[in-house]
Structures are given as C-alpha cells and as structure tokens.
Amino acid sequence: MSTTTPLRIIAMIPARYEASRFPGKLMQDLEGKTVITRTYEAAVKTNLFQEVFVVTDSEAIFDGITSNGGKAIMSKKTHECGSDRIAEAVENMDVDVVVNVQGDEPFIEKESLAELLAVFENEDADQIDLVSLKTALETEEDIQNPNHVKVITNKNDYALYFSRSPIPYLRNKEAKITYYKHIGIYAFRKEALLDFYHLPMLGLEDAEKLEQLRYLEYGKNIKMVETNLKTIGIDTPEDLEKARAFLKKN
C-alpha cells in the first residue's frame, strides 16, 4: 500500500505462564536468561518496531521483563489465545500494524520480520488483513508431527487452511508437493485484529486449537511469506535442550 505516511508498527509478545505441553516454559532458563527475556530482546534488537511489549497474565513474567528495563502489559481479562490477549492491549493504541511475536520463539531475526512487513507495501496490500511466515518441512517426522502446524496456500500465497495434520493428503504418490510449516509470527492490520477479538470462536478453530483458523472462517485474507528461517520454538522440554545446545554452539 503506497502512502506518504509511514505505518506505525509495534510488536506484541503474548505470554501465558501456563502451557498445556510445557507449563512455565517461558520462564525456563536458557543459558542465563529466561526464554521470554531472550525473545523480547531479539524483537527489540531488530529495530523494526516503534515499541515492543510483552503482554501477559503472569506477574512473574511481567516482573521478569520490567525488572530488566523492558516494557510489559498485564492482561485485564482471561484469554484463550494470543490474538485476543494482544487485541485487548492495543485496542486504544494509535497503531497501524501489530506484529505478534510468539514468546517461545527466542531466535527470531530481522530478515524474516522485514520480509513480513514489506508485504504491506506490495500491490495487493489493500487485500491483506494479516501476514505470516511459512518454511518448508524436510523430514517425514516433521510432516507427521502435530506440533508442527502445516499450511497450504493458493497460487498467490494466500492461506487456504492450517492444520496439525499433514495437508494435503498425498493420494497421488507421484505428485510434486512441498509441505510447509507455519511459523507463528503474524503482522496484523489493527482493524483485522480487533475484528478477530470481537468475533466468537467457530468449529474449525475449536477442533484444531489454531487461532488463525478464526480469520479464515470469517473470510479474512492471510498472506503467507516463505522464509528459510529455521526456528527452534520451545514447545517441549526437548525443544529447550535443543535451544540450549544451539546457544552453546553459537
């Protein structure tokens, strides 16, 4: 979208203390700093945002960020998902685009986030409600893993569906198909985020427990950007060990 006024862009990092697969994961030690602190610092370091906030229901997370000079917001309500938590926080803020950085993604880097935001300057920008990232899955184990959310798109890279199951189903074994993992980093137009906040959950979102399906069910357009970013999201204790090993090597 061409405009003479620069977009006001902020980053929000939703951070629940409880997590079904790995409770308290955001406060786990990751080579001297908590997971959430490393994620916050990585987002700030990109210099892509006017401001970066952690938005949380946890006093421990809030205190952990603010005691180190970071910015955090306490949620006033109980929320089912990160988008709802962010929407409450930004409802009265003067912003154009809100980037949702997952709190369990401590290795985000500038290049992929810049690619995400650049989409709002493309010719089809007016059609886009939100943008997210995808990366190719390389092993059958990853394709079958329900913790790796898969995404399929149309020829213009708009999302058709997200699933924990392998999609598409490969009935024709000779078909040339690349499976893509959805990386849960989003850039929302503020109005799309607030629409989401005020709309009830429908069946697909409830079944898969994937908030991005609410956008699709209500007809929002999600543009997907392919990236080579190989993240280590902290979903399990095993992921945390992988992240620790990665930091020791680097």
TrEMBL record:
Subcellular location(s): the record lists: Cytoplasm
Enzyme class at the top of the EC tree: transferase
Per UniProt, which keywords does this protein have? Answer: Cytoplasm, Lipopolysaccharide biosynthesis, Nucleotidyltransferase, Transferase
Q: Name one GO molecular function term.
A: nucleotidyltransferase activity
Which pathway does the protein contribute to?
Answer: Nucleotide-sugar biosynthesis; CMP-3-deoxy-D-manno-octulosonate biosynthesis; CMP-3-deoxy-D-manno-octulosonate from 3-deoxy-D-manno-octulosonate and CTP: step 1/1
Determine if Cytoplasm is one of this entry's keywords. Answer: yes
List the Gene3D superfamilies. Spore Coat Polysaccharide Biosynthesis Protein SpsA, Chain A
Query: Which branch of life, at top level?
Result: Bacteria
Query: Major place of localization?
Result: cytoplasm
| Reactions that this protein is recorded to catalyse | 3-deoxy-alpha-D-manno-oct-2-ulosonate + CTP = CMP-3-deoxy-beta-D-manno-octulosonate + diphosphate
**Could you say which EC number(s) this protein's record lists?**
2.7.7.38
- InterPro entries from the entry? Cytidylyl_trans (IPR003329), KdsB (IPR004528), Nucleotide-diphossugar_trans (IPR029044)
The entry's family comment says:
Belongs to the KdsB family.
PANTHER family with a match to the protein in the record? 3-DEOXY-MANNO-OCTULOSONATE CYTIDYLYLTRANSFERASE, 3-DEOXY-MANNO-OCTULOSONATE CYTIDYLYLTRANSFERASE, MITOCHONDRIAL
Q: What does this protein do?
A: Activates KDO (a required 8-carbon sugar) for incorporation into bacterial lipopolysaccharide in Gram-negative bacteria.
**Protein name according to UniProt:** 3-deoxy-manno-octulosonate cytidylyltransferase
Species source reads Mesonia mobilis
